[in-house]
Write a structure and sequence with these properties.
By secondary structure, the chain is mostly helical. It has a domain of 50 residues. 94% of the residues lie in helices and 0% in strands. It has two helices and no strands.
Length: 98
């Protein structure tokens, strides 16, 4: 009789170990998927931050553009400044992408 009881306990223990192993593997798989999701979300955050930065620059440009007087000399000077800003921004973007 003790032998049967020992076999039952061993079988029960084996079943519990198998259940725990399956749960462990499922949790590890879930952890990997969450890590991939975090990575995707971090990339999305980075993209949105770049977009926000560009929108702020555009907003500042529009604010300045609306304050420009109708004087042709001043307009020409502002155009040169804007062209320099655009070149600086393009250079920065190239450096970020490199």
């Amino acid at each position: 009789m003790p032998s049967q009881e020992l076999k039952d306990r061993l079988q029960n223990l084996t079943h519990k170990v198998d259940t725990l192993r399956k749960r462990y593997l499922a949790l590890q798989s879930e952890k990997k998927e969450m890590a991939r999701q975090i990575s995707r979300q971090e990339l999305e955050i980075e993209r949105l931050e770049k977009e926000l930065k560009q929108l702020r620059i555009d907003n500042e440009f529009l604010r300045v553009a609306h304050t420009v007087p109708a004087n042709p000399e001043v307009v020409a000077r502002y155009k040169k400044q804007v062209a320099m800003m655009v070149r600086d921004i393009d250079r920065c973007i190239k450096q970020l992408n490199a």
